Amino acid sequence: MREDDRSLAERRFEMVYDRCYPRVAAFCQRRLPADQADDAIAETFVVAWRRIDDVPEGAAALLWLYRVAHRTVGHHWRSRDRRTRLHTRLHAVPEDVTAGPEETAVSSVEVERVLRAADRLNDNDAEVLRLLCWEHLDRDEIAEVLELTPNAVSQRIHRARRHLAKELARLEREDHRRGPVPGEGATS
Fold it and tell me: Which of 13, 98, 166, 186 could form an S-S bond across to 180 if both were Cys, CB 3.0 to 4.6 Å?
């Protein structure tokens, strides 16, 4: 590679890195424990550096990086036991994230129940819901990240929501059989 081409590639990489790093980092941090998330972030940007000519311009660069990060995270997931993998990913949400209006309107017991229900989902259902809810991607963007058709994504979202609702109902029945949880409407 000529010096001018290398300099141009370095500047382009720096622009992509500066613009996309926070969102790619958050993407990885929500899915992996801190020590593994740092590795996944670094691996994602190593791929971007090596394939800088393949990185699209503008907003499409973020979706391209999400796709790379998705694959990178998947490699980390496959190295662990399924149960440990799901539990760790769902509880890896950074504590310093400010709660949105949905979270503040829902009690911590309900949030915990949703997390427990999501913990019971298969990998595909859990990931499509994370992309939809945590990354705030629309159907077409999710399709690009997962390399599926938008119709397939719509079907996955529908199925994942249905499975999550079933798991929530099961947990509510189990919790009801056990009796009131401290702090969940119990009066003394």
Answer: 186
The residue among 52, 78, 54, 65 whose CA lies nearest residue 26 is 65
Residue 5: pLDDT band by 50, 70, 90 thresholds? low
The CA-based dihedral angle spanning residues 7, 8, 9, 10, taken in that order and rounded to the nearest 10 degrees: 50
Cβ contacts of 142 within 8 Å, gap of 6 or more: 128, 131, 132, 148, 153, 157
pTM confidence score: 0.59
- Please state, rounded to an integer, the average pLDDT across all residues of the chain: 82
Domain membership of residue 132 (yes or no) is yes
- What domain range is 5 assigned to? 1-80
What is residue 35's predicted lDDT score, i.e. its pLDDT?
85
Any domain includes 93? no
Look at residues 152, 153, 145 and name the one whose alpha carbon lies nearest to residue 64. Answer: 145
Six-digit token string for 179: 């009796």
